[in-house]
Amino acid sequence: xxxxxxxxxxxxxxxxxxxxxxxxxxxxxxxxxxxxxxxxxxxxxxxxxxxxxxxxxxxxxxxxxxxxxxxxxxxxxxxxxxxxxxxxxxxxxxxxxxxxxxxxxxxxxxxxxxxxxxxxxxxxxxxxxxxxxxxxxxxxxxxxxxxxxxxxxxxxxxxxxxxxxxxxxxxxxxxxxxxxxxxxxxxxxxxxxxxxxxxxxxxxxxxxxxxxxxxxxxxxxxxxxxxxxxxxxxxxxxxxxxxxxxxxxxxxxxxxxxxxxxxxxxxxxxxxxxxxxxxxxxxxxxxxxxxxxxxxxxxxxxxxxxxxxxxxxxxxxxxxxxxxxxxxxxxxxxxxxxxxxxxxxxxxxxxxxxxxxxxxxxxxxxxxxxxxxxxxxxxxxxxxxxxxxxxxxxxxxxxxxxxxx
Length: 405
Ligand SMILES: *Cc1c(COP(=O)(O)O)cnc(C)c1O
Fold this sequence. Notes:
alpha/beta; Lyase, Ornithine Decarboxylase, Chain A, domain 1; TIM Barrel; 2 domains; eight-stranded mixed beta sheet; eight-stranded parallel barrel; 28% helix; elongated; binds pyridoxal-5'-phosphate
């Protein structure tokens, strides 16, 4: 038997039939009309937002919508956060339906002229990733007769390497190298654009508070240096995010209260600057459950396989195929018997004709039969839209929202 990751706290204490947002998993499946499906519990998202607010009282909270852009989830989370961070014209359309343009910022390399035009017309802040992008944005603003709102995304220098986090000091398609950011900010200001500040993204999926604290301290030192070089105080410093969630056995959740306490000390003396933290997975990953039904049980050379109707076409990350080096098990459960002791060791595999389609590798579960529901947790971020839904032509998974009651 191989280990699996820890259940999110809201599910860890459940016994018997799994409930999501107070409703039985089977009732959600009935509502969807078919399996597989995703259910997102907004009460869990709201609890994460409240925890962030308590730990970071002086910092704005942005939601990075690529983690989960489902329209109903976006509509429900938008009023809870201060801003939305987007990375394409498609996300721009979704974000504008949920939040005013002044609360939206647009990062990402390779923004096309059409995307820059749409963003400038809407009044969205562009987190510029290169000198070339700034030049194109200024020209488009000139042509439209609209002053572009421009922040500079900075690729940190070597000083920002800390506690095993890989951040900066390396060539990167993201952001402008720190040593070139000062002159670029001067160019933006001299051109009469609305300089919105700095965006310094520290990386992703960090569970180590000390590493994050060290990175944020280095980020603030860099921001101070760039403000001096540019001769102008940034109105906003987006500190990036990087808050991780425990997916795998041995992962321990991030102590955000420690990070918040350290950051509030660092913010002394920055009276004219607002700070933001942009989070994706930390806000939504634990709120999502992917429900899939057992289609077949089979034995092969001593191993038991539960063949389910869901797989990597909906939940690529849970199969270990979205940027992991070693495949490890997400937490999963037999939905009818949460907390049940394992009866057997099984591999939970999807219907796709590739050995990559494995949601659980030799996990311990209570005995499951054809027709039973299997729940895969941590499905709220980088699920439906980060998976190759068209691969092999199975239907898309339904996505349902459990609203806060
Ligand atoms: C993807 C992304 C995020 C969100 O990352 P998470 O790991 O989901 O928190 C935040 N900011 C930027 C610039 C990103 O590209």
